[in-house]
Design brief:
Blueprint lengths: L1 H27 L7 H35 L4 H20 L13
Length: 107
């Protein structure tokens, strides 16, 4: 169970480290591979998903687990499947990313 919490909150932490690395590249004058604005929105999205996953695991699943086990779904599966379901539902609420348009260059 604690491994799941580590993964749910570790992924946004990795994005925070990537954001710090990108900012250091910007300050040093090198071309950065990632845009900080995109990383910040991903950190917020994954952080909200991690918090919702934790809250659902602590407060909602204990009441629902006996029902799920009665129909044959093991408790470990419902805990592991909670985060991908939360990510999917949040992505449906948040919507798709902006369309990147590539304009023709004049030669």
């Amino acid at each position: 169970m604690y491994l799941l919490y580590f993964l749910w909150f570790g992924i946004p932490c990795l994005f925070i480290l990537l954001l710090i690395f990108t900012k250091l590249e910007m300050w040093s004058g090198k071309k950065h591979a990632f845009h900080p604005k995109d990383l910040i929105s991903q950190i917020i999205f994954l952080g909200i998903a991690g918090i919702l996953g934790y809250l659902i695991d602590k407060h909602l699943l204990p009441g629902v687990l006996p029902t799920l086990e009665a129909i044959g779904i093991p408790s470990w599966f419902s805990r592991v499947a909670a985060y991908p379901v939360i990510l999917f539902l949040l992505s449906m609420v948040y919507g798709p990313s902006k369309i990147i348009r590539i304009e023709n260059r004049r030669r």
